[in-house]
């Protein structure tokens, strides 16, 4: 566990100010008041450094986003140059800027099929939120105003804005103190094979089960009322859940049959994490009506997201000369963010980073699976540079540890002490490293995580919390 000084007064000014004044995403109030934050000051490549000079391999990639790695001089240079030339430009109605126009065209070139229209946002949450505004305008414009309901999935995550959080289906995010839209957002079962019903033993049977459930839900809600299905090709912070069999393709086919738009939330999966610009078509043979993206679009250098939608949708929305799109963001198409994204894409192409992901990624999967011999590792899942270790109290029954054990945080604390950052989410430790990770880096990550889990097992036994 992270060692604490005798008093908070010995902590730095940054630590003190952060603890007193900043509310962090997903902050646990009681522990934060005692432990505060790990204050980071530098980043270079796959590594970040804290205020005491200690270096860590960041296997989380920031927040799924530092795809090209940190501290690139050419990114700093293009950002600085754009600030000098034009730091901001009004994006509303009939004004644009060169980086935004060029980036929109580049995204249209990279996106599959007829997804050639782009609305820029500040991140993934707003991309999904404003995506729904586009969906509603499209359905109304084509004379189907009843189509306003949304299908989503348990364990999905689509963002932190009110609508995006309502579409998301992570049980842990549904705290009693928040409210959510419940009357027109509907959730299907999680496509998590590790938690499939006991009578289901194969991916194919589980896929059949899930597709039947989807059909029954559509029948219950009414296809005439359903506007869109929001889906992640591989679920991200819901647990890096890889759907069974050809689930993605089959859900798309169901949507096609029932005139339901298919929204691929590729905020995590796009821009190289799985070795492709976008994975819906390239990996799963799905042609979405809309793709939302962020994170790897700018590799986290500046905030930026995008809602990419089809020519079919745009044509329907724009077919009335008196109609206008009554939504927007001050920072849509921000010239500095767009300039950064263009340079980011150039780097990915020039350095052939996807080739590295497709080479090192399977090795990462293979090596992480060696952790299954540890007594509390119940499952290892994911693909390439998007992986997760599932921790359980009993490997046979798949029973989780009680929440108060805080199992994944115990493991991440030990990993941190050993110079490795992994992301703890309840019973999971998630990894989404920069696309530059090497095989030698993989060896360090896996061996260090193994040690962290072994130390956690020792702690649990010493504290009488587990005797397995």
Describe the structure.
- The chain has 468 residues and is an alpha/beta fold.
- Helices cover 38% and strands 15% of the residues.
- It folds into 2 domains: 38-68 and 353-462, Aspartate Aminotransferase, domain 1, CATH 3.90.1150; 115-318, Aspartate Aminotransferase, domain 2, CATH 3.40.640.
- The protein has a 7-stranded mixed sheet, with helices on both faces. It has a 4-stranded mixed sheet with strand order 1-2-3-13.
- A hairpin with a 4-residue loop joins β2 (47-50) and β3 (55-58).
- The longest helix has 24 residues, at 439-462.
List the main descriptive attributes of the protein structure presented here.
single chain; 468 residues; alpha/beta; Aspartate Aminotransferase, domain 1; 2 domains; seven-stranded mixed β-sheet; 15 helices; 15 strands; 38% helix; 15% strand; globular
